[in-house]
């Protein structure tokens, strides 16, 4: 009998899922699954959830690379809650913390277990800052805030994002012509940042760009263009 046939989904077709670290037993997060997410979790061996805010299924780590590898699946006596034990790659929480349950209520006061801000170097590694920034961009997109510059660009749409990339590319060229090294660094960082927003718009993680560059590595420019035409 299929797992979905053992579960009792609510009126919205969802069932809560508790995700636990297979080695430490630490509870990493709680999210929801629909039938499709359950089936894809079983088929891929990586945990899929259903986003109530976005109204669609998603795989944990699809943008950040922080996937959850399934090691064991259980469900409770009523069949209305799922427990999945996983091997967690990187951080489970979008804040960059290992677990979403980092807030501790102690004697009527709130205690934060761990640093309050994401340390990109610790979570992603010094050389993976582009992945860290992309992850934050996607978080701003999915959890909108009126004060978020990134969210404002997504709200204004693709044309605005492309306009900003064109603007930053021009400013980068001007800085390059001016010969000020610090200004070049500043403008290239702006250009990279807005380019990552474009990737976020299309749900394309930086790894897709890395893969394309790896494909081109070792090819001359002429060879690479010929390979594209073929």
Structural features, described:
With 230 residues, the chain is of the alpha+beta class. It has two domains: 92 residues, Ubiquitin-like (UB roll), CATH 3.10.20; 110 residues, MazG-like (Helix Hairpins), CATH 1.10.287. It has eight helices and eight strands; from the N terminus they run ββαββββββααααααα. Strands 2-1-6-5 form a four-stranded mixed β-sheet, covered by helices on one side. A hairpin with a 2-residue loop joins β7 and β8. α3 crosses α6 and α5 runs antiparallel to α6. The protein is elongated. It starts with 14 loop residues before the first strand and ends with a helix. In the N-terminal section; belongs to the PRA-CH family. In the C-terminal section; belongs to the PRA-PH family. GO terms for molecular function: ATP binding; phosphoribosyl-AMP cyclohydrolase activity; phosphoribosyl-ATP diphosphatase activity. It catalyses: 1-(5-phospho-beta-D-ribosyl)-5'-AMP + H2O = 1-(5-phospho-beta-D-ribosyl)-5-[(5-phospho-beta-D-ribosylamino)methylideneamino]imidazole-4-carboxamide; 1-(5-phospho-beta-D-ribosyl)-ATP + H2O = 1-(5-phospho-beta-D-ribosyl)-5'-AMP + diphosphate + H(+). This is Histidine biosynthesis bifunctional protein HisIE. Its EC number is 3.5.4.19, 3.6.1.31.
Give a quick summary of the entry.
The chain has 230 residues and is α+β, with helices and mostly antiparallel strands.
Share in helix:
40-55%
Give the CA-based shape. elongated
CATH superfamily of the largest domain: MazG-like
Query: How do the helices and strands follow one another from N- to C-terminus?
Result: EEHEEEEEEHHHHHHH
Count the E strands: 8
Instruction: Catalogue the unreliable spans.
Output: none
CATH C-level class of the largest domain is: Mainly Alpha
Mean pLDDT: 85
Q: Main β-sheet, in a few words?
A: 4 strands, mixed
How many structural domains are formed by the residues?
2
Strand order of the largest sheet: 2-1-6-5
Termini separation = 48 Å
Name the CATH architecture of the largest domain: Orthogonal Bundle
Number of helical segments? 8
Question: What name does CATH use for the topology of the largest domain?
Answer: Helix Hairpins
Give me the Rg, rounded: 21 Å
Structural class: alpha+beta
**Percent strand:** 15-25%
